[in-house]
Automatic annotation (TrEMBL), chain A:
Residues 33-258 form the Phosphoadenosine phosphosulphate reductase domain. This is Sulfate adenylyltransferase subunit 2. The lineage of its organism: Bacteria, Pseudomonadati, Pseudomonadota, Alphaproteobacteria, Sphingomonadales. With CysN forms the ATP sulfurylase (ATPS) that catalyzes the adenylation of sulfate producing adenosine 5'-phosphosulfate (APS) and diphosphate, the first enzymatic step in sulfur assimilation pathway. APS synthesis involves the formation of a high-energy phosphoric-sulfuric acid anhydride bond driven by GTP hydrolysis by CysN coupled to ATP hydrolysis by CysD. Residues 282-304 are annotated as: Disordered. Heterodimer composed of CysD, the smaller subunit, and CysN.
From TrEMBL, chain B:
This is Multifunctional fusion protein. The active site is at 548 (phosphoserine intermediate). It comes from Stakelama flava. Residues 28-244 form the Tr-type G domain. Proposed to provide activated sulfate for transfer to Nod factor. ATP sulfurylase may be the GTPase, regulating ATP sulfurylase activity.
Amino acid sequence: MSALAPTRLSHLDRLEAESIQIMREVVAETESPVMLYSVGKDSAVMLHLAKKAFYPAPPPFPLLHVDTTWKFRAMYELRDRAASDAGMELIVHQNPEAKEKGINPFDHGALHTDMWKTQGLKQALDKYGFDAAFGGARRDEEKSRAKERIFSFRSASHAWDPKNQRPELWHLYNARKAKGESIRVFPLSNWTELDIWQYIMAEGIEIVPLYFAAPRPTVERDGLILMVDDDRFRFHEGEQVVDRSIRFRTLGCYPLTGAVESEAATLSQVVQEMLLTTTSERQGRAIDHDQAASMEKKKQEGYF
Amino acid sequence: MTAHASSYRVDAMIARDIDAYLDMHRNKSLLRFITCGSVDDGKSTLIGRLLYDSKMIFEDQLASLEADSKRVGTQGQDIDFALLVDGLAAEREQGITIDVAYRFFATEKRKFIVADTPGHEQYTRNMVTGASTADLAVILIDARKGVLTQTKRHSYLAHLIGIRHVVLAVNKMDLIGYDQATFDSIVKDYRAFAESIGIEDFTAIPISGLAGDNIAARSENTGWYAGPTLIDHLETVELDVTLDQAKPFRMAVQWVNRPHLDFRGFSGMIASGSVRPDDPIRIVPSGRTSTVSRIVSFDGDLDHAVAGQSVTLVLADEVDCSRGDVIAAADAPPQSADQFQAKIVWMDAEAMLPGRAHWLKIGTRTISATVQQPKYVVDVNTMAELSAKTLDLNDIGICEVYTDRPIAYEPYADNRDLGGFILIDKVTNATVAAGMIDFALRRSQNVHWQAIDVTRDAHATQKNQRPRLLWFTGLSGSGKSTIANLVEKKLHALGKHSFLLDGDNIRHGLNRDLGFTDADRVENIRRVGEVAKLMTDAGLIVLTAFISPFRAERAMVRDMLPDGEFIEIFVNTPLEVAERRDVKGLYKKAREGRLKNFTGIDSPYEAPRNAEITVDTVTMSPEDAANLIVARILEQ
């Protein structure tokens, strides 16, 4: 072996290696893994890491998109292309009950998220019998996530018990579980938002163009700037479509996702704005505003 | 608000030249550290301060922090940084942190991952967990209180888990008027203790998490202090991952990448050393050798890879190598052994049962292992060695560990990845313990696993049969021996090569040193399993007839053999039928109390849940049962 000066691994090298190690461990130790793919930037990074982890083989699991039918059009477009580029099967699940009842973000508020996302996810995992699901959540996103393990166990009814988590030591993950139990695995646990952006830049990962500023049709409502992405948008009285230069820091259902006014049209400009900005990433998501511990409650109920 | 301006807040470069800034930050290194101390030492405040000063806290979070501080904070009208790092709702209500939480911040030079663990006595398990991935420990001391019992506990645990860099952060200096004499006296006390437990070096820094002294910027209040600030030190301390590169090459195989017949790669994370194409390697424990032909990556083949990287290696030869094996430098491979002395940290509410089989996961290998009664446990408050029969939650014990087959290992002090393991309960699947290998026991360490050219497959092929272990289990008097005898006669007549291991006969020879205590019963079955395994290696069909009442022990033997070779045969006879037969008069003795621990009477029989074959001796004659068994094993 060589007597050369040591190779210095950057923080991105180390994060990448850790995420890859986690993914390989899941593939080696579970029967039927799946990767939850939400088409956001974190999903894009996670998918890229999966391609690296199993190269030259394609990632040995399918992608699952728990669809609400209300995502931005640009997201659907990238979703289908990204899956086929990776050589992976794409499973799209839309909660048939929500579909039948016409659940939508305009009329149903929190019920919309619960039915399409929370219930939809449980349905899909049960339907296909997946026993492990990769998710792109990061510990820096929110306080209760900071204490969640990388391998997070769910009971047969998909409940999370924050008091009964398995200790994770070194690089050792205990993936054993009883029949009916499943694991949510978070390979990006130790990444921060800045790490994600830096990695997207360094690796040239394609992300939805909505992350970059462009003139888009919008309305302002309750302090949020909403984009009018299709003709299903319901206007309140007196609301008018205004073209604004906007971008999104996080992507979800378009009627629920607030944009920021911005001129940042390139990756480095986006990162620049992020570093100079003074509000956290989740602020644009309507679901977090109720109370500090809302995410923890949602998780105990089975939200990812 | 008492926040001080600090030297590592967002610099002007972001606004001026973002590309130059990003370029600079692309090559940051990563340091993981742990903070140890109690709520009272201002630990959460210190972490909150680090996050705040490095701009990891946004305006909306700050607004909610200010509101929370006034509502439930402990700092009057000032910001209570501790609230930033409290997580789960129940904990917030109790006002304490009760688990391991991970926090992130970055400076110009490094990204940091902080494991935040509680200081309460009952949470040894959490600190050990948080420390297992840390390069450095910050031990917090309240300057008004000096070195306390908990300081010693935290230091001992940090040292136990192999942390090489210890920072003694003497906090709340503002409350003692930044008095140098007090600081010096605390450092002196700590040095004496640290040396006594083997901590060779530490860095002591006088700080105030609340006021910001010597955190990011040098404090004017401590003119007498010439050392680094906390951030300076965290930014420059040497990383374990860099030091690991100088050690011999080792990589545990995680996954065999085989997309098509022309490609076979071995994927894993390099635990130590470095590797290049053409390097000679040895696979441990098999001992086979080859050379590295390629280091394959998504971005093209690499000419070099080092500790800490996840890679895929292609070898020059078609050698047998699978998940759990270690690929190592050919001239400096790790040893393999199956008996160790290890430090065990018990993490389960249910106490350890010495001799019970657990899953042991080390590197990428999961095997069956038993932990023996501890030689002693360590009192983490006094470091005293106490005798103990078992390990309770949060106990640290020195124990012998026996694995059911040899594994590649290194002492934990040399390599965390090949010396650290977890124990998993086979029934609940809980992670019940963490362990650190001290050394292999002499009786096994110098015995290298011999690579044998006539393989078990060759033995079996020559005999034109698939090796099997037919494990008959059932109550005394159920007819196990009778049926096993008949089965062997039939196999023999068919030209099969077999051997019947009878319980009583074995107790006359190999196991004559064993009695009938629980521990001896477990050892009896283990030896029978080992002998049976050797015989199946030789290609034989082995039959055994033992009551073997416990599922855990039958599972232990099942795990010794390749998948599909262990055939559990449940000779199902209801207790009243067996007792009525009472061929040997044993039930009568047991009922009269003259025979203790008799299975079915005063000792339980755990019937198999998923036996490969079940024969019901009430409805079936021994002859029919034997015919059924022979037909079933030959059809497969």
